[in-house]
Amino acid sequence: MSKHHHSQEKWFEQPTYYDEIRFKGYSRRDFMKFASMMAAFIGLETSAIGQVAKAMETKPRLPVIWLHFQECTCCSESFIRSSHPIVADILLDKISLDYSETLMAASGTQAEAALKNTLEKYKGQYILCIEGSVPVGADGVYCMIGGKTSMQILEEVSEHAAAVIAWGSCASNGCVQSAKPNPTKATPIHKLVKGKPVIKVPGCPPIGEVMAGVIVHYLTFGTIPELDRLGRPKAFYSKRVHDTCYRRPFYDAGLFVESFDDENAKKGYCLYKVGCKGPTTYNACGVMKWNEGTSYPIQSGHPCIGCSEENYWDNGRLYERASSFAGFGIESDADTLGKYALGATGVALAGHAILTNLNKRKDINTLTAEGEAGDVDVIE
Amino acid sequence: MGKRIVVDPITRIEGHLRIEADIENGKIKDAYSSGTMVRLIEEILKGRDPRDAWAYVGRVCGVCTSTHSLTSVRTVEDALDITIPANAELVRNIMHCTLYMHDHVVHFYHLHAMDWVDVVNALKADPKKTSELAQSLSHWPKSSPGYFSDIQARIGKFVASGQLGIFSNGYWGHPAYKLPPEVNLIGLAHYLEALEWQKEIVKIHAIFGGKNPHPNYLVGGMACSIGLDDVSGINAERLAMVDRLLTEGKQFIEQVYIPDLMAIASFYKDWGAIGGGLGNYLVYGDLPTKGIRDTASFKFPSGAILGKDISKVYDVDLKKDDEVQEFIKHSWYEYSGGDDKGLHPWKGESKINYTGPKPPFEHLDVKTNIHTLKHQGGMAMPWK
Prior knowledge:
In chain A, about 40% of the residues lie in helices and about 10% in strands. Chain A is an alpha/beta fold. Chain A has a five-stranded parallel β-sheet, sandwiched between helices. Chain A has a two-stranded antiparallel ribbon with strand order 4-8. Chain A has helices at about 10, 15-25, 30-40, 50-60, 75-80, 85-95, 110-120, 150-160, 170-175, 210-220, 235, 250, 265, 285-290, 330, 335-340, 345-360, 365-375, and strands at about 65-70, 95-100, 125-130, 135, 145, 150, 165, 185, 200. In chain A, helix 3 packs across helix 4 (about 50-60). A three-stranded antiparallel β-sheet of chain B has the order 1-2-3, with no helix packed on it. In chain B, strands 4-5 form a two-stranded antiparallel sheet. In chain B, strands 6-7 form a two-stranded antiparallel sheet. The longest helix of chain B has 30 residues, at about 235-265.
């Protein structure tokens, strides 16, 4: 945390994460387990575990301001679902959550004073977390707090933030309120905050441990995690749900659920044909799962709705299969795979041969047409 | 003339709420509330596939997550005359009861407790006396003097650090806090315990709906397949987990939440006489056992109570135009047929028309124009 050097003395008087954890009765072993888990989440090499542990042993509590604009508070709720026992403690006690409309004791004037205090005292040091989009329509009157618009508040509070985290799909891409016709002109944060990093953590909501992981990365290294070209932490958003899905072998074998009450649904076949957006969705659901690894949408039998993708509300209906997606060229489409799996018919084999050639030319449109023309339902 | 105070933001709620109150001689003479955020999801829903609607409206609230989605799938099923399978009805009821349990506890501890529990005052408690008190209230095992003294020391260190986080600038020490230090310490300890607890019970939503917040629903039933011996889907292992989570959830509610609620309420009995609105109450009923159309089969019956007279419960028919209406006279909306009329939600309109002051502003013009943007909660919905 290079920006903190000038004030390090003051900061060091305060309890560190390690102090707090030990104080709460966790052992050093628990602490190391937590540090290892966090290092793994963040995608670090094993050698970096010590660095995570060291950072948490010596760093004081990071001031965090958490604003709510056009949102439903599902991100805050998901955040408090962070599963590892130490995570909830750390993020509610070990960061200094100085402003959070969901959890803070103070209201009104006292809440605003707490915000102002952090803005002044920790200028350039606090992390700004934003849950929700900013409506820019009608001069911003569709979201007002304390008589000010969310636009005005964002401008004030982001000015001296060390970094900005856009929690969830609302802040990252506008989510449901930005779906057509976007009546309030809901706008994601990165389009409004310029000149400083905005970490997008999309999902409706994002997975709790992903949220924890992003914060822990900053606590540990004083830098934001490595982001992909869309501004999302690579550790959690570099793989498609499709690529990490435990039902993927059924997709590859051409075994699909055709309707939610068929035998294939009971067998846990691939949900692609009933609308699964896993093939176009980048998220960690298949790896980390939800609610302490209990399950994730596909495991519960429901297609992925693609909630971490931009414009997911306007990218086709939920229960209609995606007509094409990136990666078609490699994996081919559901019907053709089905035919291949059937294997016995010459048509299918020929289809696959054609497919392979087409793949080489990356002619996805032709491929799709070919697939549709020869549509055979292998499951029946 | 009295003084006008503004409380905005109202914290520990979902959404954005502003209260302006007129104070005269130290008492509130009049108060005005205004919802100050809107997304117009109603307008966005128009023209969408009705099977998808649950996902849109579910995003109305992530705290009472799943409620709006459940209502949406029921609405579509009612419109299309779909009867859902018995298992789907059971699964939905279990999920709804899960939310019911989760939401009450979170509301009490994390959203409401700081209005009653003085966190800083808990530092003055005697851990031994706290332990005796806790054990007299409940059999909950975490109640030793050592346990309370650890919590106390932890919070003491936290307060001493000067970084009070979510407790910053609270109303600590205000005379309106009436709990003795020992009860404050119990409340604080259970605030932290409930924070751990709340992430457990919602695993039931993850099992049946894939995740929480915002579990998935499906028009026509539920997507999760049930088969005790199935390799995939809701099998005996998954159901055993649901059983365990419900049992543990119930334990916490019976041994922690309800005793705390009773103990804390006993110090604030006078608050029972404050508020209460018009004294008219309306409940739509829930937990159907023979489908949503057979309201007599609901485990939670529907009905209306007028003028606080609980001796008579009136029948409610949600489908009748004259029984449920939305009024927008005090909302920043307009109706094509005039703003004085009420409309049944089926005929509802959502044309927004902001006429409030241009931000930044100090006060709303309450004489002529105290309004709200929030549609769902903000529109007045009288019964009959």
